[in-house]
């Protein structure tokens, strides 16, 4: 009497393939939600006020807040900063695409 294929034990190659896929899924980077807080960009204020280059803290915060830039451009209180030509200069210096794709 032959065993049916459904009762066959898992082959080592299949087991390894499944294990690798599970490990890869567990190691995949998780999307982190950004909390939009314009106060995080206060480190960029000196660059807006005339500092020749933005600080590393400014660039770090700008990269972190990048998904929020469209919202900042819609806020009349922030648009005077983030809608200015200086904003592009700062973003370029920090390696952040500007203007954002809104």
TrEMBL record:
Residues 36-102 form the Bifunctional inhibitor/plant lipid transfer protein/seed storage helical domain. Residues 1-33 form the signal peptide. Keywords: Lipid-binding, Signal, Transport. Gene3D superfamilies: Plant lipid-transfer and hydrophobic proteins (1.10.110.10). CDD domains: nsLTP2 (cd01959). One of its GO terms (molecular function) is lipid binding. It comes from the Eukaryota. This is Bifunctional inhibitor/plant lipid transfer protein/seed storage helical domain-containing protein. It comes from Punica granatum (Pomegranate). The lineage of its organism: Eukaryota, Viridiplantae, Streptophyta, Embryophyta, Tracheophyta.
């Amino acid at each position: 009497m032959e065993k049916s294929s459904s009762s066959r034990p898992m082959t080592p190659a299949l087991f390894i393939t499944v294990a690798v896929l599970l490990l890869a899924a567990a190691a995949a980077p998780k999307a982190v939600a950004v909390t939009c807080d314009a106060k995080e960009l206060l480190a960029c204020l000196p660059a807006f006020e005339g500092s020749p280059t933005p600080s590393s803290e400014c660039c770090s915060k700008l990269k972190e807040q990048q998904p929020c830039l469209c919202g900042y451009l819609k806020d009349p209180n922030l648009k005077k900063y983030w809608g200015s030509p200086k904003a592009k200069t700062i973003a370029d210096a920090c390696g952040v695409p500007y203007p954002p794709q809104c």
